[in-house]
Amino acid sequence: MDSLRGQLLVATPAIESGPFLRSVVLLLDHDDDGALGVILNHPLDADVEDVLPAWGRAVNAPDCLFEGGPVATDSALAVGVRAVADVGPTPPQGWRPMAGRVGLVDLDGPLPQEGSLRGLRVFAGYAGWGPGQLEDETAEGSWLVVEARDDDLLSPVPETLWREVLRRQDDDVRFWATFPDDPSSN
Predict the structure, then answer these.
(1) pTM of the model as a whole
(2) For residues 138 and 145, is the Cβ–Cβ distance under 8 A?
(3) pLDDT at position 1 over 70
(4) Fewest beta carbons within 10 Å, which of 24, 31, 91, 118?
């Protein structure tokens, strides 16, 4: 399988429980060694300012931490989108490009210079797959792989992102957006 770095994984109705239920995952890395991403649509009750006070003013609304995935939930990583005007050869300090204008921001470094980022989110934990695991899960129908947009990472209403991403697809999978929360009560 070609690298899926920079793509979205959208959980299909085959995932019926757990942290990936109706999740939208942005893949930050994918190669022969596995894959790494963050769940974009699981905001937590904790504000970034309460956990990382200096970074509270740097994140986009909602200004809470997000559950990035079930791996290393006691650590945080920041993912940002570079500003259009700043996509020149010199990246912001502490920036590590991942896919297009999306990259990791070093939380141990200084805050990004104002105007260098279009937006930023902080995630507790991440989603990870071993070699071949993601390919197997995709082949069995657990994940739909779709094109990511910068606005997906910065969605002001992340709880609706699963349905929004499905609705914008050109094929019949867009009808999954109407799949009931509890199919047994349908």
Answers:
(1) 0.93
(2) yes
(3) no
(4) 31
